UniProtKB/TrEMBL annotation:
The gene is khpA. It is found in: Cytoplasm. A probable RNA chaperone. Forms a complex with KhpB which binds to cellular RNA and controls its expression. Plays a role in peptidoglycan (PG) homeostasis and cell length regulation. This is RNA-binding protein KhpA. Keywords: Cell shape, Cell wall biogenesis/degradation, Chaperone, Cytoplasm, RNA-binding. Belongs to the KhpA RNA-binding protein family. It comes from Ruminococcus gauvreauii. Pfam families: KH_KhpA-B. CDD domains: KH-II_YlqC-like (cd22533).
Length: 75
């Protein structure tokens, strides 16, 4: 999931070198944290959170095979 979020985020932002994605696993949950440059935060979140919601939807669809819940946090 980490690679998927990283590819999507780097395609959206102006400073792809500042994209940092970390992944940690808890019991039945995988938490993916996305950090971008402050100037790119609006591009990742989108109007009324539409892009962030779309990223979460894509990751949720991709994670359906692993039987774990995936949470995407945008820091």
């Amino acid at each position: 999931m980490k690679e998927l979020v990283e590819v999507i985020a780097k395609a959206l932002v102006e400073h792809p070198e500042e994209v940092a994605v970390t992944e940690r696993e808890e019991e039945r949950t995988i938490v993916v944290e996305l950090k971008v440059a402050p100037s790119d935060m609006g591009k990742v979140i989108g109007r009324q959170g539409r892009i962030a919601k779309a990223i979460r939807t894509v990751v949720k669809s991709a994670s359906s095979k692993c039987d774990k819940k995936v949470i995407v946090d945008i820091m």
